[in-house]
Specification:
Elements lengths: L1 H12 L14 E11 L3 E6 L6 E3 L12 H5 L4 E2 L3 E5 L5 E5 L5 E5 L2 E2 L20 E3 L23
Length: about 160
């Protein structure tokens, strides 16, 4: 119960609306991703509340490598069972199942995250922090080789 409350609190402060499954068994299609024109990063993927979404360079298609303390800073964008995530003006939105059973939204197969330090709409302060990159309609940055790096942010996963 405490873990669930913590996740819901984190989602609420990150600008993600917790999505509950419908009472009846079935599937519900819901827009969870849209676009915002960033002055520096082009057309950026954001939540429907306007919070920037990021991909992790160490992830691979339908697989997240962000766990433990990484998730405290980079919460995944998740949807409830029975929800099919959609994008408004964005194709390539899907869903994968994390090892803990959460259903994480993906863009072109890569898991999507929020950045805990983004505290207002249309903020993109997590760009290039600890191998995370803002998700946008251009090319997606991934890291083929895992290396240890030190960043100014102190987020060394």
């Amino acid at each position: 119960m405490a873990a669930t409350v913590g996740v819901l609190s984190l989602l609420a402060t990150s600008g993600v609306v917790a999505v509950s499954a419908p009472a009846q068994a079935g599937v519900r299609r819901e827009v969870v991703v849209t676009l915002w024109k960033s002055p520096h990063d082009g057309r950026v993927l954001v939540t429907t509340r306007g919070f920037a979404l990021y991909t992790y360079g160490r992830d691979s298609r339908d697989h997240s490598n962000c766990a433990g303390s990484c998730l405290a800073v980079w919460p995944p964008l998740v949807v409830a069972k029975g929800v099919v995530p959609l994008g408004r003006g964005v194709s390539g939105i899907g869903v994968m199942t994390r090892s803990n059973g959460q259903r994480q939204v993906t863009f072109r197969g890569l898991p999507l995250y929020l950045f805990r330090s983004d505290t207002r709409r249309d903020e993109v302060s997590g760009q290039n922090v600890a191998d995370f990159h803002v998700a946008h309609l251009g090319a997606i940055t991934t890291t083929k080789k895992t290396t240890t790096t030190t960043t100014k942010s102190g987020y060394g996963y």
